[in-house]
Give the backbone structure.
Amino acid sequence: MTAILGGLGAACCWTVAMLCSSRASRVNGAGPTLAWVMLVGLAIVVPFVLASGSPPTGSAAGWLLLAGTGNLGGLLLEYSAVRTGKVGVVASIASTEGAVTAVIAAIAGEPIAAAVAAVLALIAGGIVLASLGENHDPGEDGPATRAVLLALGAALAFGVGLYAAGHVSDDVALPWVVLPARLLGVAVVAIPLASVGRIRIARASIPLVVAAGVAEVLGIASFALGARDAIGVTSVLGSQFAAFAAVGAYFLFGERLRRVQVAGVAAILVGVVLLAVLRA
């Protein structure tokens, strides 16, 4: 039950974060939006970090730094992608972070089963289909251009971060897993933008930024708690944030996908679920 609740909780939180950040990024830009999301997250996490004891050292600290860098880079690329791309497509491609992790593990020497390889091919095909077809919405890039490439970059960055976090999640307290990305975000995004007066955001988008910051932290925490019980179940349910986000974008923003893109998104979602089950 913990895995089910943790996975569903993560999916719901990441859906909220995706929908809110997509609107905020279109108004304020990816950098300022990310800066405030990280500031909100840091304010939430710091009290828990202070109560969790001394910081990790040695190799654990290195893996945490890599995990934080991957998470931060992924969010920046994702926020840039949803400025012009469709939320349903961007979320689906970004949700393939688990597939990226599987490829990294294979490169690192972990044997890859034929079934896993077939699922990775399905996901790759889904990404191609999701990027096809001409967009007709004002202000959007053409297919398979900037938004899709940025979403692919986000999936890669998230995958690296997920792989790194997997090495230390059982050895360090949960707040230390969540902290690095927020700390790095403030140090390398928020402070530099503030120093040149570019951290301001529109007043109307403040609730969106706060909601995204809170949802990102709660999503990671919910996923980590569920994964301690059954990582396969939690991964399957958590990855459904892509489907939730696509549905939410349809009803909230009137976002529509072409049939070929719907087929691609469906293939990605099925592939992500199958991959999580196979790697459970």
